[in-house]
Amino acid sequence: MSKPRVNWQTPASGGGGRIEGTVANTTALNSSVETSGTSASAGIGAGRVYGTVDKTTAVNSHVTTEGEYAYAGIGGGGGGINGGTVAHTTAVNSHVTTEGEFAFAGIGGGEVYGTVNKTTAVNSHVKTEGDRSHAGIGGGVGIQSNGCPHHGGEQPCHNRG
Fold it and tell me: Which of 68, 70, 145, 150 has the greatest number of CB atoms lying within 10 Å of its CB?
């Protein structure tokens, strides 16, 4: 499958590319969001979040990025969740995968500089590959994340049922 080529100004997502307001009640079923290139963020709620992404659900879905600073997340990819909020994110049988240097990945958000709240992952998987590429359930990397950030490699999500 070929991946669309995007740059930092055109992140890909289901809810919206760059979000400065609010995206709410987004559901992705058997869906995928993919980007490649430098600073090509991807998310189901939003590719880049500067506002609020609330109530995002992904079932049997995939978010994949490839490239330097290519962040990925179910709620939001990243690249500036500055003071923003990603809340009530649920991933079921879903995957978030990045490949590249500084390519952060998370169920809540890949790069988080705001708040990630109430993230749930069931039978889901977060994986990064590349130098200084961090993975986590709440957020891949950042500050003020209420999730569980971890450093490097991959982190499988556990079945809560």
Answer: 70
Tell me the CA end-to-end span of the chain in Å, nearest whole number: 33
CB atoms within 10 A of CB 92: 18
At 49-91, the pLDDT tens digits run: 888 889 999 999 999 999 999 999 999 888 554 567 889 999 9
* Range of the structural domain that residue 111 is part of: 12-147
What is the rounded CA–CA span in Å between residue 125 and residue 142?
19
> How is residue 41 annotated by DSSP?
-
Name the residue among 26, 16, 84 with its Cα closest to residue 50: 84
| Residue 88 included in any domain | yes
